[in-house]
Write a structure and sequence with these properties.
The protein contains six helices and nine strands; from the N terminus they run E-E-H-H-H-H-E-E-E-E-E-E-H-H-E. It is of the alpha+beta class. The chain has a seven-stranded antiparallel β-sheet. Strands 5-6 form a two-stranded antiparallel ribbon. The longest helix has 21 residues.
Length: 236
């Protein structure tokens, strides 16, 4: 097992590799390519960079047609999530500022993982700030064991999700406070402490975890109709 970690997009990005190319130059190159994808996404979508494409678009300095095509892709995903959640998920903050961060992390990590997935005979587990995409080629091999943090006691594990191949994303307020709000009200959700969603696509589970958390007490029933497995932690 070989592990690497870097700080990109304002968060820790880590990978665990096991198998044929875990410790060789080809594995190192795939990791470098994955990081390049994430750094490119940060240059386009960072809301902390005044010169990023998304910041300039939000200020009206450029039009969507002037942006790289991935901007329209991300905003399209966000709009679909807004409609599916009846407005609870929104790429605009309550003050109207454009902020597609609820889409970008999972979307970018999934794109980065393509380079790791191209490694033959090699398993990987990529974590982007705690959201996970992983692959295991041998169905009889041990699964990756993904911890779900207890939002009431950060650093303590509330549950463990065993997963061979797929994606896991968690949304909550434990680490970053009330950064997720219900787009319909502009207020933090009630009746939920965190939600973890398990599925095939990190883009999808990341967005759906955020939407379910924003929906608050309605999130569990909403996710039931989305076909995902999920772990909910309720307030104490």
């Amino acid at each position: 097992m070989i592990r690497h970690v870097e700080h990109v997009m304002g968060m820790p990005i880590s990978v665990a590799l096991r198998g044929r190319h875990a410790a060789d130059a080809r594995g190192a190159a795939a990791w470098a390519d994955a990081l390049s994808v994430l750094r490119g996404a940060d240059r386009v979508f960072s809301t902390y960079r005044p010169c990023s494409v998304i910041s300039r678009l939000g200020r009206g300095e450029i039009a969507l047609a002037d942006c790289p095509p991935e901007v329209a892709e991300v905003l399209g995903i966000g709009d679909a999530a807004r409609r599916a959640s009846d407005g609870a998920f929104d790429v605009h903050r309550p003050d109207g500022t454009l902020d597609p961060s609820g889409v970008v992390k999972g979307w970018a990590a999934e794109r980065a993982a393509v380079h790791l997935g191209a490694l033959p005979d090699t398993d990987f587990c990529l974590s982007a700030g705690g959201d996970i995409v992983c692959r295991t080629l041998d169905a009889d091999a041990a699964p990756w064991r993904i911890g779900v943090e207890d939002p009431h006691a950060p650093g303590r594990i509330a549950a463990v999700v065993p997963l061979h191949t797929g994606a896991v994303a968690t949304s909550g307020a434990a680490r970053r406070g009330n950064h997720i709000v219900d787009g319909r009200t502009g207020r933090p959700p009630e009746g939920i402490a965190s939600v973890t969603v398990v599925g095939d696509s990190l883009t999808v589970v990341d967005v759906d975890a955020t939407a379910a958390f924003a929906l608050g007490a309605q999130g569990e029933s909403w996710l039931a109709g989305r076909g995902h497995r999920a772990v909910f932690v309720v307030p104490v």
